[in-house]
Amino acid sequence: MELCGYAFGRVCDIEPDRTERGVIDIHVPQSEYAKRDEKAVHDYGWGPFCSFGVPDDGTHCPGVYVIAVADEVVYVGETKDLYDQFTNGYGRISPANCFEGGQGTNCRLNTGIFHAVRAGDRVSIHLHATDDFEGTEAENRALRRIIKDDLITAIDPEWNKNTSDETNETADHPTAVSEPKADRQENAPDPTADCLEETPESTADRPGETPEPTADTFEFRETTRPDDAPTGEFSELYDYLTEHERDSVERTFAELEVVLDAPLPTEARRWQRWWTNDPLSHPHSKAWLRAGYKVADVSLPDGQVRFERLRDSSRASDTAETPQVGRVSPGRRE
């Protein structure tokens, strides 16, 4: 690849870690931060985040790198060590980096990579190495910044346009913001949870009991499932909504896959009618209807669905209803 006269070598495609079922393993580090009650999560600190790295061979070098999505350059950066920048920086979001004072760029790029890979796009890294430059480290860094600025001016990459979070970003220290060792918890929480609360030990450790995660906090509490509770591949969604305390629950498809610990059916991403509130024609809708919710709105292009709590009468009848659909792509039929 050649950009503005600079030669770039392809390093690798970014392949985030996945669960045993093939779903991208979502990393939720916020609850591991001991000072989470003292600081607010910044604009990019909620993720979703994934974990990834780059090959160790030949990547411990300085240079200017580009991130490309579907062969289109979306970000240009410079670094003292490419391996450290991606494996320990962008690819591993530390708990402290999610909060005010943390490196928002790490969080922002990680989330962008997550969504691009989840959408099926190839995300690749390319490097213009400057390790053969004869000069001091300060001179090398000045050269890298000149090249980076040239490329950003010429290409105007999409992910470089938001630079308000770059205050704490340093190319030489991709993971500069970290917790003191004394503040780290002994037991890390479930990485599939999306919470800011610790797991109460009293319920999780009781013999013979299976704790269930609650809605936004995913804290664990003992639950009793009724006899008519749905079983099968969507039973986790029923359990999730049953324990939810809010009347309106909006989730991305990726977040629902974390709840299910499995990919959504292809039809759920392509057809609005898959989300119909009709237990007769769409038995899977029992997962949310019997939990006391209906699908109120679906956006297939954005990959989002909004559940709203039913009134008691509606909950009992499981009335068929087709949810609204938001911004359906042209050419798609219901």
From TrEMBL:
The record's annotation in InterPro entries points to: DUF7662, EndoII-like_GIY-YIG, Host_DNA_Degrad_Endo
Where is this chain compositionally biased, Basic and acidic residues type?
218-228
Name recorded for this polypeptide: GIY-YIG nuclease family protein
The organism's place on the tree of life at top rank: Archaea
Note the Gene3D superfamilies from the entry.
3.40.1440.40
Protein species of origin: Halogeometricum borinquense
Q: Which CDD domains does this chain map to?
A: GIY-YIG_EndoII_Hpy188I_like
- Cross-referenced Pfam families, in alphabetical order? DUF7662 (PF24698)
Ranges for domain DUF7662? 234-307
Annotated region (Disordered) at 158-233, 309-334
